[in-house]
Specification:
Length: about 120
């Protein structure tokens, strides 16, 4: 699976951004999808994940209630809607694919996108 993330940018605190991840190469609906982020000097951390069908999602406590993950299997895309952004959300955001089941552990993912930078100013 090839993954292409897009939609990052520079925004002020309180603003919204929508990240997209376009998949190609395999049957997209066979993969659980996750979003992760990595801030400078920090380890990659789990943001949220969505099941193969899109019927189930889970989120890190730090983003719960502000971020929403959705997917469109007909368009091979997964999106991360980010609202009420905070400066601590500043990071490179990555989408990842894992065959069949989603997980919150980065090492369990099979494929990764190249990342898109989100910068939130105070």
């Amino acid at each position: 699976v090839q993954l292409q993330a897009s939609g990052g940018g520079l925004v002020q605190a309180g603003a919204s951004l929508r990240l997209s991840c376009l998949a190609s190469g395999r049957t997209f609906s066979n993969y659980g999808m996750g979003w992760f982020r990595q801030a400078p000097g920090k380890e990659r951390e789990f943001v949220g994940a969505i099941s193969r069908t899109g019927g189930s999602t889970n989120y890190a406590d730090s983003v719960k209630g502000r971020f929403t993950i959705s997917r469109d299997n007909a368009k091979n895309t997964v999106t991360l809607q980010m609202n009420s952004l905070k400066p601590e959300d500043t990071a490179v955001y990555y989408c990842a694919a894992r065959f069949w089941f989603r997980t919150d552990t980065p090492n369990n993912y099979d494929y990764w996108g190249q990342g898109t930078l989100v910068t939130v100013s105070s």
